[in-house]
Amino acid sequence: MKRLLMLLAAGVLGLGAVTQSASASTFDLGTINPGTTTGLVANLGVPAPVTFEDTINFSLAGLENSLIGSLTDLSAVLVPTDSLNFSLDLFRVSDPLTSLGNFTDASGTVLAFSYLNLAAGDYFFRVIGQVGDDVFGNAYSYRFEVSEVPLPPALLLFATALGGMAVVGYRRRKNGAQA
User: Fold this and answer.
1) 133 pLDDT above the threshold of 90
2) Contact (CB, 8 A) for 21 and 131
3) Considering only 33-37, 114-118, 159-163, which range has the smallest mean pLDDT?
4) Higher-confidence position of 62 and 123
5) 110 HSE (CA, 13 A, CB side)
6) Nearest to 66 by CA among 125, 124, 148
7) Which of 2, 41, 70, 71 shows the smallest number of beta carbons within 10 Å?
């Protein structure tokens, strides 16, 4: 059994040796509701990919949302991996050429980002980076926190005042018609 597992592992590593020197992965998170979403991405192979480009698809259902989060290199946890030069862009699926904002971290340790006032719709992140030398690939975790942006209190106050003025105007007209 041990020999079979070793042969299987050698076969997987051998298969990785035939792959290209760049790695690309696509993930679909579906609709992200308010709250926190976390996950792990790993691009492994022998030889290790030199670069990586990952796409993370998701949808937002709320009217206006804020999206904050981070990417964290896992080289301290997964020893034979290393991520360098993190770069993250957010795009709308309907306009995949116009970035809604770019964030970078040359060290590849932690990349923090924040996007405000995102409308409901379909989006994707493009995460690009390089893989360190003498490793088997890269691995990083992501953490997204979505929160709905509430209506400003001033808007509710304005609507209440407008409704009050309408009631006062109605009463004046009604009382003026009776006199």
Assistant:
1) no
2) no
3) 159-163
4) 123
5) 5
6) 148
7) 2
Tokens for 74, please give them.
Answer: 């896992």
CA atoms within 13 A on the CB side of 172: 6
What is the average pLDDT across 83-107? 93
Question: Which residue is associated with the tokens 């890269």?
Answer: 138
- Mean local confidence (pLDDT), 32-53: 89
CA 105 to CA 87: how far, in whole Å?
Answer: 7
Q: What is the pLDDT of residue 155?
A: 65
Averaged over 49-68, what is the pLDDT?
A: 89
Tokens found for residue 94: 């309907």
Cross-strand bridge partners of residue 65: 118, 148
Partners of 43 in beta bridges:
138
Give the H or E element holding residue 53: strand 51-73
Q: Using omega within 30 degrees of 0 as the cis cutoff, is the peptide bond preceding 34 cis?
A: no
